[in-house]
Amino acid sequence: MRKSRAARIGVARVSPGLLAVLLALSGARATAAGAQAPRTRIVMLGTGTPIPDPERSGPGVAIVVDSVAYLFDAGAGIVRRAAAASRLGVPGLNAPKLGRLFLTHLHSDHTLGLADVMFTPWIQGRKEPLDLYGPPGTARLVHGIVDGNDEDIRERVASSGGPSAEGYRANVHEIVEGVVYRDARITVRAFAVPHSAWEHAFGYRIETPDRTIVISGDARRNDAIARECNGCDVLIHEVYSDAGFATIPAARQAYHAQAHTSATQLGAVATAARPGVLVLYHQLYFGATDEQLVKEVRSTFAGRVVSARDLQEF
Ligand SMILES: [Zn+2]
Ligand SMILES: [Zn+2]
Question: How far does residue 145's CA lie from ligand 2's centre (Å)?
């Protein structure tokens, strides 16, 4: 049932524009209504990159199991996108319920929403600190956010009926490869991926009662993805267009080739990984279209592939 549900969403025709995507999310829920409700829902909160595309928030994926939310990366706009998903019927993404976050690496396009995930749910009623997992350096980043917002925190806590004294904090767990988190609903395993010059960049393998999901993080082509996915239900992977790449300056080509995975490379990775559905996110088009991007992936991958938009659900 899982795969057929992903398939229905995968073939859905989503016209450009956020409204269309919102409708697609609603439609996906309606389609699933007659079947037994899945315990795990994957909502693409942000599919963007450092480019400030108004239709794509910075990278962020929500995995919601039994209405408990687990966030992966915190790009700009993530809390507003979570609120949009909550209004559309994913109650686990109510702001005060945003309590667990896993960072893949510390490139700012993946962390610009971190202060938002720390403070906005707190102001809206979260009593407990954010439970935060990320590479070495995460504690320093959190310290800077708290230090720089000291006046705001003191003013809010001191105000009449203000938020709790602790809920703005983050309990930071700086991670290494291996299982970094486990509870009754989910197991999260971090694995190292190569990404430009970063010493610590991770992908995540997530197991829930009814889905196995792999998130690439930012990574150039590598063998870890196929090993970790190995027939997983959903592979969420970053990508850039081969055709677009050919149009950018040589110096940028050199960078991106070290940092990211081309569409044809990704197709080969997916062929080895055998996911139920391959979901493209963090798409670097360099002028190409979604159709071109998907066609490039399909030149080396015969399975199901979807180029995701913000708020699409899988
Ligand atoms: Zn990135
Ligand atoms: Zn990056």
Answer: 20
